[in-house]
Amino acid sequence: MAATEAVRRRVPRERVSQTRQFVIGGAEGTLTTGTQDDGQLGEIFLRIGKQGSTLSGLAEALSIVTSLALQYGTPLDLIAQHLQGTRFEPAGLTDDPEVPEVSSLLDYLGRRLAIDFPYRD
């Protein structure tokens, strides 16, 4: 079986982005999303916790991996589906009326992205 080379679709140098502040169980964070020319999600930047903390480092790593997955063609709905329902701290009430309570940061991310970028063919 011949291996096929994955093709990366980088986001354009100038792109539309949106930054959303959020609070989960008292922990403050921001989610920035950047889109491709066609409006599809192309990258995320997730920031939470104190710089240098474990939570901050994991959020940064998740941002990189998620952005690469999107740019290599992984469907957003598949990513969002697998993030939702994960359970760990921070968790609990949020200040987001569309996602009022979550079981983890990943649960929030999956649910928020599914709302902001609904599935389309």
Automatic annotation (TrEMBL):
Keywords: DNA synthesis, Nucleotide-binding
One example of a Gene Ontology biological process annotation: DNA biosynthetic process
Domain TSCPD stretches: 12-115
Class of enzymatic activity (EC top level): oxidoreductase
Swiss-Prot/TrEMBL catalytic activity: a 2'-deoxyribonucleoside 5'-diphosphate + [thioredoxin]-disulfide + H2O = a ribonucleoside 5'-diphosphate + [thioredoxin]-dithiol
GO molecular function: nucleotide binding; ribonucleoside-diphosphate reductase activity, thioredoxin disulfide as acceptor
EC number: 1.17.4.1
Extent of the signal sequence: none
Family: Belongs to the ribonucleoside diphosphate reductase class-2 family.
Name the record gives this protein: ribonucleoside-diphosphate reductase
